[in-house]
Task: structure prediction
Amino acid sequence: MEMLINPTAIITIEPNRFRARTAESHSLKVVIKLGSTDGLFAAKGDAEAVAIQALEAGRAAKDFERQLTELSVSRKGKGGVISNIVSGVEGVTIMDTRPDPVAINRACAVLIAAGYRVAVREIRKCSESGCVSEATVEWNREAVIPSGWYGAVICGKHNYRTCRKCNSTYLMSSMNSEGQAPSLDCEVCGEIIVEWGSSKVWSAELVTKGESTVHPI
Result:
């Protein structure tokens, strides 16, 4: 007998950097995939109702704006005819602040009670001006650095470097060198940031001063 696996509902929290009503505005999104069998998990209306309940549970206010969208996939049928099949529903609401763990737990509880498996994720966006890089991370793990990023809120596209001795942070810039370029030292503790012999001449602008371990005699 084939074991049926309940479909997954995905909760996504995302900052609304370019369409925010407030500086801390976030969107709360619930995506519910429809099951392939008849019954509860195959009914679009049931999925929409549960999505609305989850969005309501994730907000403090009772009255809120929401948007429901059908998700569909294209399938080729007999005679090569392509048709769009509803595969799930997506519900979104805008919040004036980042939702707290209690609110997300309430939304999860609604989905679990309805029989869905639940995954919660968060979209992290680079804080550098003009940068549109983003990464998907586990919910409520603010200190975690996404893979390939410089820091928790700065992606890897920017030339930041941290002194390994005093943790001072520098914004790096460079130009091609005709010969072997000189080394570059940390101005706080004297640790070598760039080794001698580089193919580029580097300069460093101190952004955050760390704690020097060098003490005057």
Notes: The first strand starts at residue 8 and ends at 15. The chain is about 10% helix and 40% strand.
